[in-house]
Amino acid sequence: MIDLYYWPTPNGHKITLFLEEAGLEYRIVPVDISAGDQFKPEFLAFSPNNRMPAIIDHAPADGGQAITVFESGAILQYLADKTRQFWPKDVRAHNTVNEWLFWQVGGLGPMAGQNHHFGVYAPEKIDYAINRYVNETNRLYGVLNKRLEGRDFIAGSDYSIADMACYPWIVPHERQQQDLNQFPHLKRWFEAIAKRPATLRAYAKGEAVSNNRATVTEQGKQVLFGQKART
């Protein structure tokens, strides 16, 4: 059994995508980030960056004590290594998946996240900041679109953790002020993943956890965006 500490954000969806694809038994422990659940001492004990997702694997491959993992990219690698799925054994293909996984965690995710912040959540609309992150998101969409030309998935013909990492950050493309019609290879890939049964199950679980609550209150914004080292 795996305990998944989760809220239905793009980073949270990465992990439910994997767990549903792999058919692993897991239990969702909601971490309502707008309510400040990520600051609870019991969560910080194994997720010190006060961010979800995080997991506790009560049945690790070595049969020893439970293993905790935080950071979505690290969790995907851990689960892929545990199950020997969605991470090819061939050294070159393995490396390609890693490259694009790190491309997502170091580029697409942070840039799209800033896009969301300045375009949707910021109390003051700063044109320079909005344009900066909308344009950078657009550039990254273009990189991914070019990569997917002539390929079913990011690393080639097989679905991998690189695809699971990137897909949830393309889901809010309208919020990011991006038109998928400008990126035909990316759009084809996106639509194919959206139809996968595991994707449908993963997102349905997310809706159940949040009760379809899409808005962040002003109090929630203070929790999410007002953090400092001493918070």
From TrEMBL:
<dbReference type="InterPro" id="IPR036249">
    <property type="entry name" value="Thioredoxin-like_sf"/>
</dbReference>
<dbReference type="Pfam" id="PF02798">
    <property type="entry name" value="GST_N"/>
</dbReference>
<protein>
    <submittedName>
        <fullName>GST-like protein</fullName>
    </submittedName>
</protein>
<dbReference type="InterPro" id="IPR036282">
    <property type="entry name" value="Glutathione-S-Trfase_C_sf"/>
</dbReference>
<dbReference type="InterPro" id="IPR004046">
    <property type="entry name" value="GST_C"/>
</dbReference>
<dbReference type="InterPro" id="IPR010987">
    <property type="entry name" value="Glutathione-S-Trfase_C-like"/>
</dbReference>
<dbReference type="InterPro" id="IPR040079">
    <property type="entry name" value="Glutathione_S-Trfase"/>
</dbReference>
<feature type="domain" description="GST N-terminal">
    <location>
        <begin position="1"/>
        <end position="87"/>
    </location>
</feature>
<feature type="domain" description="GST C-terminal">
    <location>
        <begin position="90"/>
        <end position="212"/>
    </location>
</feature>
<dbReference type="Pfam" id="PF00043">
    <property type="entry name" value="GST_C"/>
</dbReference>
<comment type="similarity">
    <text>Belongs to the GST superfamily.</text>
</comment>
<dbReference type="InterPro" id="IPR004045">
    <property type="entry name" value="Glutathione_S-Trfase_N"/>
</dbReference>
